[in-house]
Specification:
The complex is a heterodimer.
Chain A (H helix, E strand, L loop, with lengths): L1 H4 L3 H37 L16 H8 L3 H30 L6 H13 L2 H11 L6 H8 L16 H25 L4 H9 L4 H29 L3 H6 L11 H10 L4 H35 L1
Chain B lengths: L10 H13 L7 H32 L3 H6 L11 H8 L3 H32 L5 H13 L2 H14 L6 H25 L3 H9 L4 H9 L4 H17 L2 H6 L8 H11 L4 H21 L1 H14 L1
Helix pairs in contact in B: 2-14, 4-14, 5-8, 5-11, 5-13, 6-8, 8-11, 9-10, 11-15, 13-14
The chains are: A mainly alpha, B mainly alpha.
């Protein structure tokens, strides 16, 4: 900021002109295709819009009251909670374990990284299709493998069984996200102070203690950052569930996202669907802000030390 | 991969990994450590195969003969034929879907890279009154999921006659990538030294020339990473074409695959072939531009 102070006025005017010219198209798109519909979303939540009447009646908190009393909302929210907890914790644990395993490995590390990361960048629709086959009740690999290893009693129609459907879809999501977390944590591990780790080894710390007391604190900011990402993603989960189960069987995998979609586009309850989607955001933002703040504080401490 | 990364966020990663290279002398290793490393590799190979198994399954099923698919759809590589691919490409219209996927991902990606570079430069190096508020409005998009405004956007596009249009869908896809893109490019421009800009100014360069001739060439690696990252995001996008191309005139691979899944679930062969057609470009881009992909996703996470 201080260097800006001794810029001559003519330069500053030229910079202002160029700056405005450069961000004009950007701002136009952000305003038209993001801010405008966002403001509209808030408007929709307070009226009763069915997609046809262009002057929908104002109903105040009507949509929110209905949401609070709708018997379908609580189970959907609960499924989101399960999704967030398991869908965040398992890729973190598996990804961290993988990253630790890969930490000192150099030979072939490129191949392993490609193998683990590839699932994350594949289109979720395609991933959903394949996993539907893996979960196939009769010919799917999962049940076949279970039979072979003598766990035939566990076989079930994974996606068709209300008790297992949500966890089956979650399994797919965990498979897809783990590689991403693995890659981030692996690159964070490369910044861990190796001398500190070696010193603690000499002091007699076992490998679990080294990971817990020496490695983990050093990568904590990154750890929290990926936690935020997967956690927030868990609120707006949609593609996997939509493709693999469509919210079924019998609502067993319905989450707020799929419920908002079907309310708006299948039942033409535009306002109600929008209100549900708004609730998703309102629920997610405090988590994002809190974790970001924690992460910032930790990384500031890290640089100060 | 990380060893050759460039750009501000990864500078520390690079130096750390070269350190690693110096230290990790494989040949001066005790037998015990060698055995441990061998065990690690064995475990890593098994886990890699597990990770790649679903992809292998798609390839295997897509390349089966018709009879084999009916009898044994998921047995690995028990026959070989391109008939499913041909069926999916022609009868299943996956050829058209692939073209549409390109028409939806390439222009939107170009738009994101160009506008984000322009915006990133402004937010990093061209101060003017009101700039901060503009920046906050742009990065608000990182906080608000697409979900929140997708329904009103549908009706807005309808009234703008941009529903079921390539232009409209490209604009929406581009906008969903602009917040991150601007944020990403700004970091690259922020890290360039002030002296460069001042020297160019002393030499009589205009502000426009400084941007285009002096600064932009220095962030091309960032632009490349952003392009690859954005292309993959747009190629994979499912919700945007699902919502805003309801007529199906420009249906891309993702929603085409979904339609196929709902329509004839028994046709596993062509479905596998369609899935393969959908993921092959992603895999190709990833293998060819692995460094840019990783850089895009990593910095995306670190900064987002």
């Amino acid at each position: 900021v201080s260097s800006v102070a001794h810029v001559p006025p003519a330069t500053r005017r030229a910079q202002t002109r160029l700056g405005i010219a450069l961000i004009l198209p950007l701002m136009a798109m952000v305003v038209i295709f993001f801010l405008f519909p966002l403001v509209n979303a808030i408007y929709y939540a307070f009226v009763d819009f069915n997609g046809i009447n262009l002057a929908p009646p104002f109903i105040g908190l009507g949509n929110f009251v209905e949401l609070a009393t709708d018997p379908a909302v609580l189970p959907a929210l609960w499924h989101n909670v399960i999704w967030i907890v398991i869908g965040t914790a398992s890729p973190l644990v598996i990804g961290f374990a993988l990253a630790l395993l890969m930490w000192k490995v150099r030979r072939g590390s490129l191949v392993y990284r490609v193998a683990f990361f590839l699932p994350y960048i594949l289109p979720q629709v395609a991933v959903g299709v394949v996993w539907t086959w893996i979960y196939d009740p009769t010919r799917g690999w999962l049940n076949q493998v279970l039979e072979v290893v003598g766990l035939g009693a566990l076989t079930t129609g994974w996606l068709g069984d209300p008790d297992t459907a949500l966890y089956a879809v979650l399994g797919t999501a965990v498979w897809a996200t783990t590689g991403f977390i693995f890659l981030i944590l692996l690159s964070a591990l490369r910044n861990v102070d190796a001398e500190l780790v070696d010193a603690s080894r000499i002091d007699g710390a076992n490998s679990l203690q080294r990971v817990w007391f020496i490695v983990l604190p050093q990568i904590m900011p990154v750890f929290l950052m990926v936690t935020t990402l997967t956690l927030v993603g868990g609120f707006s989960v949609f593609d996997f569930i939509f493709v693999m189960t469509g919210g079924g069987p019998a609502g067993a995998t319905e989450v707020l996202g799929t419920y908002a979609y079907s309310s708006a586009f299948q039942l033409n309850r535009i306002s109600y669907g929008t209100t549900l989607a708004l609730v998703i955001t309102v629920l997610a933002i405090p988590f994002t802000v809190a974790l970001n703040r924690l992460q910032r504080r930790l990384s500031l401490q890290g640089t100060g030390a | 991969m990380t060893g050759t990364l460039s750009g501000p966020p990864t500078a520390t990663i690079r130096s750390a990994s070269t350190l690693d290279d110096v230290r990790g002398a494989d040949n001066a290793m005790s037998p015990k450590r060698r055995a441990l490393l061998g065990g690690k590799h064995l475990l890593l190979v098994v886990l890699s195969l597990l990770s790649l198994f679903p992809v292998v399954l798609v390839i295997s099923t897509a390349l089966k003969t018709d009879e084999d698919v009916r009898v044994n759809p998921f047995g690995l590589f028990s026959s070989f034929s391109f008939e499913n691919i041909v069926t999916a490409w022609t009868v299943g219209s996956f050829g058209d879907y692939a073209l549409n996927s390109f028409l939806l991902s390439v222009p939107s990606t170009v738009l994101v890279v160009v506008l984000s570079t322009m915006g990133g430069y402004t937010f990093a190096r061209l101060p003017f009154p009101g700039r901060s508020i503009c920046f906050y409005l742009v990065v608000l998009g990182l906080l608000v999921p697409f979900f929140t405004y997708m329904i009103p956007l549908y009706f807005q596009l309808r009234s703008m006659f941009l529903l079921d249009s390539l232009v409209g869908t490209n604009l929406v896809l581009a906008t969903t990538g602009l917040s991150f893109g601007t944020f990403f490019m700004r970091a690259f421009f922020s890290d360039l030294p002030d002296e460069l800009e001042q020297a160019a100014r002393v030499d009589g360069a205009s502000e426009w020339q400084i941007f285009l001739r002096v600064m932009m060439p220095l962030v091309t690696s960032g632009m490349g990473a952003l392009a690859v990252f954005t292309f993959l995001q747009n190629w994979n996008n499912f919700l945007v074409p699902l919502l805003y191309l309801p007529g199906g005139g420009y249906r891309p691979l993702t929603t085409g695959l979904y339609l196929f899944l709902g329509g004839r679930s028994i046709d596993i062969g062509p479905l596998a072939a369609g899935t393969l057609i959908t993921i092959v470009p992603v895999i190709a881009v990833f293998i060819a531009l692995q460094r840019q992909v990783a850089e895009g996703f990593l910095s995306g996470a670190v900064k987002g």
